[in-house]
Write a structure and sequence with these properties.
By secondary structure, the protein is mostly helical. About 80% of the residues lie in helices and about 0% in strands. It is built from three helices and no strands. Helix 1 runs antiparallel to helix 3 and helix 2 packs antiparallel against helix 3. The chain is elongated, with a radius of gyration of 15 Å. The two termini are about 20 Å apart.
Amino acid sequence: LNLTACEHERLQLEVKYGLEYAEFREKLETGALGDEYDYELEIDAMRWNDLIAEKQHWLQQLRLARELIE
């Protein structure tokens, strides 16, 4: 299931940085993680943001499917 893969990848990023996304963004923006334009940090930040949006997409699809069944 795509939602499971999305959550797994998000969890990998949380483990990698030891932070949840909101904390990661805050530390990234304040420079606490180093240069926010560092390639690895920038790629991880973009991917993490995409994973959050993707999760919302899949949850919306599940809600719509449930409404069709009911």
